[in-house]
Please model this.
Amino acid sequence: MEALTNVLVAIDDVVWGPWMCVFIMAVGLLLTCRLGVLQFRKLPLALKYMVGKEEGAAGEVSSFGALCTAMAATVGTGNIVGVATAVVAGGPGALFWMILAACFGMATKYAEGLLAVKYREEKPNGKILGGPFMYIEKGMGKQWKPLAKLFAIFGISAGLLGIGTITQVNGIATAVQGFFDPNMENTVHMFGLDYSIATVATAIVVAILVALVVVGGLQRIASVTTIVVPFMAIVYVVVCVCILIAHIDMIPYAVKEIIAGAFGLRAAAGGALGALMIAMQKGVARGIFSNEAGLGSAPIAAAAAQTREPVRQGLVSMTGTFVDTIVICAMTGLTIMVTGAYDAALANGLEGSQVTAYAFGNGLGWSSQMGSFVLMVCLAFFAFTTILGWDYYSERCFEYLTGKSGAALTAYRWVYVFAVLAGPFITVSAVWTLADICNGLMAIPNLIALLALSGVVVKETKDYFERLADGRLSA
Model:
């Protein structure tokens, strides 16, 4: 097992090496230039479309429902744990690079959403099938179908083994145990190991809740996420804003440290370049992991949106990255800085959610237990909705790869629920590393397609805004 783990770690280092971050950033930069910085010029219109609705348009759920399903998969542990990990490992400057990556990532998400709707396919049963596998096959040509199938394979693997199940339910179980049974005083012996009763109870409850939602298909997933995702995002942002107001005098210091750290200005002359590279790598990597721009996951949900216009859904899709990283992750990072959580992490060896828990526990003058409780609730809801979003992604990948639905798809959903149930009890590092590899490998076919079809994206965009300008469309 150790030999296998070492091999997987080596592969993971290659897949998620600097070249991947550069590749994803380069695609985002290319699209930003070719679209004339559309993600900022048209952001007000995109926010308007986000809450609007097209009557009589084809699709399974509203554009907002599709966006919430996509955001359910991205607004998760990456916003709480990922930001803290990036700031501690890469310094405060990592937050700058995380936000910059999101700025380019908005253009990537726009292109993904546009292509997903343009090349989607409606099945005889009225269901919509779309995403990178469809725009690779239909946009690039049948000869590229093997690349589309590779994406689907990696998508299923990521859902069952990666960001969709194991990491999320582990995050929930860890948060619940940390609050209710931090010292492992109430345990049960299972599978040759001792587990907290809180962990076992969490696994069972989460699995039951996931089953109740995912067995109902996309409509039920969307109905849950359209309520939970906006509510929890607002609660989390409000808490962060309250903490920032309470420490408003520290905000200039925090911003100064973030900018200085982003360019290695705090390091000695000989180490400035090294500090800059570490901040850039950690910030970009965690930013990508948080908003998934370029991975190809979000367009699977975007394809199901009720819309006639690919550009319109592209605009809605890019707002997800704006909210996920530029708003929520930035709030988390600033909260960590102004409360002294970053300094505490360096001094006491705090990691991941412990860092954000420190910020929440000490940020508003309430008891540290109350702060930990609020964070636990936010983390639990964020991770739960991520499980729901990734079930839908992996289902569509399964349907494309096998051509099967009905009973086969129902069986797949129960396998997914079982993976959620087993998640808190899987601690083998090789499984986690394999999951990380699958997540990264999804991006390669998708990025190739975005490069190949960037001309289509530009053409569709130009045509849409020409029709909007001369009155053939209404905003």
